[in-house]
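In the previous chapter we treated chains in isolation. Here, by contrast, the input contains two separate entities that must be folded as one system, with a combined length of 518 residues.
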Amino acid sequence: MSARARRGAAAAALATAAPLALPAAASAHGLQGKTDLPLPTWLFSWAAAIVLIASFAALAALWPKPQLQEEHRRRIGRLPEWLDVPAGAIGIALFAVIVYAGFAGVQDEPTANLATVFVYVHFWVGMVIASVLLGNVFRSFNPWLSLARASGWVYARVRGRPWTPPLAYPAWLGCWPAVAGIIAFGWLELCYQDKTHPNIVAGLALAYAVVQLVGMTAYGAETWSRRGDAFGVYFELLSRLSVWEREDGVLYLRRPLSGAPQMPLMPGAVALLCAAIGTTSFDGFSNGSLWADSSPDLVDFFSNLGAGPQTETQWASTVGLAVAILVVSGFYRLGVRGMQTLGEGHTADELAGRFAHTLIPIAFAYAVAHYFSLLVFQGQAAGYLVSDPLGDGSNLFGTAKATIDLNVISSNTTWYVQVAALVTGHVCGLILAHDRAIALYRKSRDAVRSQYWMLVVMVGFTSLGLWLLSAVRT
Amino acid sequence: MFVFAHAGHWIEGIIFALPVAVLVLALVWDGWKTKRRRRRRARG
């Protein structure tokens, strides 16, 4: 069997198991088999709730003083800043290859083109996990930041003075440009009809890079990358869960979870995390039976309004995505309002900001739970794509014949990983919330009482996550 | 009409959300008890 035929067989298997090739195939919820667990899935939800309630009680009894409000870290060694130069060069080269593959590679078979698979799987999902395991590695490999830094270096050498940004970044803008970017990427991934076309993926990647370079030129590379670059901000937030931190060329090992409470309070941070959780939720929801049954009504509605056959589905998904983000935001807001009833003069906005970091482990848990199987299955495509990035039959490194092993993990193993990820993520969220509460409230009793509503939020998010995943299984 | 047409899914969702409902009820009950205690104290 030829390499192309084997890839075709793998792609056919994926396409059979899931409604769309990518990323939905991979939303490998679609790859799950039928439910054959020893227990009904709702029982897992109840068990998860019990674990969270028990954790909450244990925290109230055994965690009387703040432990995470200061970043406890110890120096491991030097990781010089000049390392960012080769890392940035790799990032720029990889970005160039992705864009080239998107325009020059095969268009009719998305899983055979490096651009589509890399952007939706290795970058969007892989970088989430890399950020938590290794720290903020995206910052070193970020192609647009590296380009801006290189341009700034050249400018300083030629002019003899560093580049001065013409505009001051408005404080009120916070990370709202990044929020817009994350929602736009979510819309592209989940709603846009032509999302799997490699040339469109490449074109949008190029457009995104141009926008970032304009932002960095106007407001400064460092400022924009920490506020306006959607991926830069998102991966930086997730890297706060990592025990590794790099600052001024020094590598530190920090206490687990102590990075998240140091998250800067900036406008849009809550929205960004809610958008990330909402986007992942809708990804799960849109692969489930409820959406499959109900979306035709929504599609008909837009059809009656005059939308064409392509756009009506797009509009229906857009509404679904917006509702998912609003539901997640509303649920968090509900927890905050509950906390506010305790008094002590804290406003809802203040509490929403001060507890925003508790959403970071939830965003990570949702991403792992929903995309774990995507990474495990579709991530294997790197094996053949590295040798044949364009899908034109070349074999650069002799691995073009590699295939996707669909038996690498079972459906049940995936489910257990998903449950474990959701429960662990929400327990971490509870720990962060409890630690912040005892630092914020004068009486420890009030601190514990304030977290009753956060417990509801955490249990709610866990139940929602498991319901969405279980709906896909069936 | 829409809700009835997809009742199976909603029932499934309600079963999943039952722990949340129990927690909310416990919170409401706790809040009501606290208010009543405060009123009694205020009356002396």
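Chain A touches chain B through 25 residues (CB under 8 Å). Residues 36-70+280-381+403-474 of chain A form one domain. Compare these points with the single-chain example from earlier in the chapter.
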